[in-house]
Amino acid sequence: MKCSSRNKIIYVRSEGYYSTEREQAVFKDLTLSECADRCTFKIQGVNCTSFEYDAIQLRCVLKEGYGNMMSDGSMLPLKTLRNISLFQQLCLPGM
């Protein structure tokens, strides 16, 4: 689901996971907060719905998919890698 401007956007963190979705944009030397902002505010026109963050290399990868959902709603396993975290966007009703 894509968030609208009326939604509050939060991210669910999965430690040690990354998705197999195609990379839409890659940034280096960013903090986690800066990476989340780039996803939330659709930097470089990427319709970001998830991102991966490597805390050791300070690498931010914006993705356009959730990485674990098939079109029928069933789950796909995520790949694991120790220093990467996957952040999946959730839309909450506006406050």
Molecular structure report:
9% of the residues lie in helices and 43% in strands. The chain is mainly β. The chain has one domain: 3-Layer(bba) Sandwich (Hepatocyte Growth Factor), CATH 3.50.4. It has a 5-stranded antiparallel beta sheet, covered by helices on one side. Strand 3 and strand 4 form a beta hairpin. The protein starts with 7 loop residues before the first strand and ends with a strand. InterPro entries: Pan_app.
Keywords summarizing the entry:
Apple domain-containing protein, mainly beta, Hepatocyte Growth Factor, Pan_app, 95 residues, five-stranded antiparallel sheet, 1 helix, 9% helix
List the helices and strands and how they pair.
Layout: E1 8-18, E2 23-28, H1 32-40, E3 50-54, E4 59-63, E5 79-92
Domain Apple: 3-91
Protein name: Apple domain-containing protein
Organism: Wuchereria bancrofti
Brief synopsis:
With 95 residues, the protein is mainly β.
The CATH topology: Hepatocyte Growth Factor
Number of domains: 1
Which oligomeric form is depicted?
A: single chain
Strands of the widest sheet, in order across it, are: 1-5-3-4-2
CATH class: Alpha Beta
CATH homologous superfamily, by name? Hepatocyte Growth Factor
Please state the second-level CATH architecture: 3-Layer(bba) Sandwich
The coarse silhouette is globular
Strand content range = 35-45%
Order of helices and strands: EEHEEE
Protein name: Apple domain-containing protein
Domain Apple: 3-91
Pfam families: PAN_1 (PF00024)
